[in-house]
TrEMBL record:
Its EC number is 1.11.1.29. Gene3D superfamilies: 3.30.300.20. This is OsmC family protein. Keywords: Oxidoreductase, Peroxidase. InterPro entries: KH_dom-like_a/b, OsmC/Ohr_fam, OsmC/Ohrsf, OsmC_Ohr_Peroxiredoxin, Peroxiredoxin_OsmC.
């Protein structure tokens, strides 16, 4: 399985701009720039996309962990907060903090935490991130 995305950039780093497109069409010439990345101008940025990928990957991995253990979630809602810090050599993604709110009938807290920790460690996006990963959860 291969998934593809393309980036096109025009101009200098700080004053230029670009767009991102995915084969699925979810992103189609979606604009990004220095301002959308570092100054909170509307638009997307690579770190936001990594956060979305991590939240989606982890949540689906947990759904499969739950299914394999005989549980079905009513809802799994995950936020991933990616922390970017400036270092001498540029910027580095230092952390991805997962915050999960879950409604899973019939599962106790200990079993749920075991399954969530497994999903946190085994989802492909977690495996590729060279960053600290934390997970906080609330089980309703």
């Amino acid at each position: 399985m291969i998934r593809k995305a393309r980036a096109v950039w025009r101009g200098a780093g700080r004053d230029g701009n670009g767009d991102l497109t995915t084969d699925s069409g979810v992103l189609s010439s979606t604009p990004y720039s220095f301002r959308t990345r570092f100054e909170n101008e509307p638009g997307t940025n690579p770190e936001e996309l990594i956060a979305a990928a991590h939240a989606g990957c982890f949540t689906m991995a947990l759904a499969f962990q739950l299914q394999n253990a005989g549980f079905t979630a009513d809802e799994l809602a995950t936020e991933a907060a990616v922390t970017v810090e400036q270092e001498a050599g540029g910027f580095t993604i230092k952390k991805s903090a997962l915050t999960l709110r879950a409604k899973v009938p019939g599962v106790d807290r200990a079993k749920f935490e075991e399954l969530a920790r497994t999903a946190e460690k085994t989802c492909p996006v977690s495996k590729v991130l060279n960053a600290e990963i934390t997970m906080d959860f609330e089980l309703a």
